[in-house]
Give the backbone structure.
Amino acid sequence: MRATRARGGHLRPPWAGPLGLYHAGDTVLHRASPAAKAAGLAVLGLAVVALAGPVSAVALLLLALAAAALGRLPVAPTARALLPVLVTAAVVAAYQLWQRGPATAVEVGLDLVSLVLAATVVTATTRADRMLDALTRALRPLRRLGVRPDLVALALGLMIRTVPELARSAAEVRDAARARGLDREPRALLVPAALRAVGRARVTGDALAARGLAD
């Protein structure tokens, strides 16, 4: 992924949202081990379940925001990436307000945002290779049950790489359709995007088969 040019002509590292995509830095969180950050995320998840009430929800959100600040996540891109989550949280909170009152609405909405933001911090401060290595080590005890840790890590790595590529491909298709005045024509958007996705899947499958990893 290419770096973008910020105001003033300075290059800034790429940012692609909360999909496990690394944002370069040298903070305490960047230097922490993936296992430690995963454990912290698990503790936060347990706290969300164990603690009730809007006060605890606000406290957990502040904790997630502090972690994002500590990891120096860029504010505007992070907010844009989390916008669908914020909309979802607002809808869920509105439903809870109608069904169970304002206290539950605040708790449920903020807990959802806290969990997603904390997961974003973990993935944004952890390189993909370190995360996959940690996953491989964690799955090694399951080899006795027939699980192949290397293949699981490979599948996750392919997913992390594929999602941004599919998004980029969809944007290119949309731009091409707009240039032809067909941006409101569903077939001009869906058919090329689907063909590109299938083509990428076939190329990936052929590459895996060539390396004996398709079985």
User: Anything to note?
Assistant: The CA atoms of residues 129 and 135 lie 10 Å apart.
